[in-house]
Write a structure and sequence with these properties.
5 helices; globular; 146 residues; 5 strands; alpha/beta
Length: 146
Amino acid sequence: MPTIWTIGYERMAPDALVAELQAAGVERVIDVRFRAQSRKPGMSKTKLGARLGEGGIAYEHRRTLGTPPEIRPLFRTGAVRQAADAFRAHVEQTAAQELDALAEELSGSAPATALLCLEAEPSGCHRRVVAEQLQQRRPELRVVDL
């Protein structure tokens, strides 16, 4: 059964993040932040990619699967349903082909993959919407939140 994991690094240090991903058997991280920058040390694109690589985990940043600035405040203020609806419409309009390709890849011989974003709770994060849109394309896709 094809599986995709999701993880938020909000409450983790880089080493703890790598350990969690390794324990789950994740081989690749797809960073779904619009901007792969962080105030948290070690969690910006270059340093995070290097640290994951040291742990044997490939890193990819897919900006098109990130929350654009105009939708982000909805998630921050707790308007999660409205935010999710807005993001779903946005990602389907701007990145449907990328979602199609990723869904197809996940059903084949893709490495064990996790979607990464900041928020610790997946229910309040756009990565849940990304996972749901992948499941619409691949109903047998299992989503595991770390």
